[in-house]
Amino acid sequence: MEKLNERTAGAPTSPFYDEMFDEKGVRKHYSKADHVLSRMTIEERANRQNRLNSRLLEEGITFTLAQPDQAEALERTIPFDLVPRIIPADEWEIIEQGTRQRVRALNAFIADIYHEQCILKDGLVPRRMVMGNRYFRTEMMRLPVPGGTYITTSGIDLVRDDKGQYFVLEDNLRSPSGFSYVFKSRSIMTHDFPEMYFNYSVRGIDRTLQDFRSALRNLAPNDKGEPVMALLTPGSFNSAYFEHTFLAQQLGLTLVEGRDLVCRDNKIYIRGIDGLRKVDVLYRRIDDDFLDPLSFRPDSMLGVPGLMNAYRFGNITIANAPGTGVADDKAIYTFVPEMIRYYLNERPILNNVPTYLMSRPEEREFVLERLEEMVVKETSLSGGYGMLIGPSSTEWERELFAAKILENPDNYIAQPTVKLSTSPVSVDGHLVSRHIDLRVFALMDGRNVHVLPGGLTRVAMKEGSLVVNSSQGGGCKDTWVLSV
Fold first, then answer.
1. Which part of the chain is the Circularly permuted ATP-grasp type domain (predicted)?
2. Is the model's pTM score more than 0.85?
């Protein structure tokens, strides 16, 4: 990627859509940011960048990164960039409406497949893709869910193509991560870069925490004025443990591990010095497989024996509901536009990235002939794992993936390589272009869907890379939605 002019004036010469620049220079909504950045020397930008990242470390905002060549994982901060992503109000309105629409349709789909299965009977989604899905839970069949809300929290990943149009890349519905980095990014920018932040009228994000707590509280299976709510974490070794502690503190949830909970008479209790305290709502940050060793993986040490029985008896609510993973499977993703038309009778506001199902012979043949142009993904994996990025792959890697596809085509989808939009980032004080995406967070409370204004902009910190995941070394930016 080309280094930008040190004054940041002038557009970068690249085939990608740049968030800050167009062919005429700095985009209008970035002019104030450009003014601040252009008055700083390289050394000043480098020092400011170091100060921002020092704040992350001081506040313990870390991420545990697994190293394939090392026995122990490394705890580090996610690289945070001082150049914000700025989204105009009219642009955000489309994103917000499209996210709401998508979450409503996905929730309707999950409710349908665990009850009437109308979409399967009508042949819009192949039955085998749902019933044979590794995330489909027969334990959820015909089970009533409070308020019909299966997806309390969701993270919808958006990318922008070379024309500046937004597309949905993935839906994250099980236990999407990144909420905490949105709030910490905003705190750092307002505290350590006020001369830029207060130049803009930026929509606030604090209300989201109230909406989050309200959405959980409204899931309580009884009319208690103040239900007992807990966040179930795998423990301090988990890569997102900082986020678990942050959300528990901010939302007023008790942070628990499986060993802190016990089942008695089909009710779940927190063990404490003063005895047992019944839990009404459990916001879980562990996968279905580990929730309950009596229902799922018998070797799980993370969950609570008897949790699913308590859930079946209506004595506790689990958010997100078990079994939601069917709808964030990358093969099921291809059918979301049809879900929107089917359940909502609406046209999709946000389109999918064009996607090929390897289970379809003609699409499989088309992709195998063009692997060097494609991104191939294993349908059940996330976090940037199980992927082939064709343009940067070797012939050996393409041959390996071709064999995997032919051996088990149902496990893979392929997409053309999207020319992800770019944004300036500060590297040693120099402003250079890097690829970015946007994770938009939504909270569902009954029929209402609240979308957090801005979300998490993730950055591929490595030059030329398209992989933005923090587990793969990606960074993040504060994301500002302008109120006018």
1. 84-460
2. yes
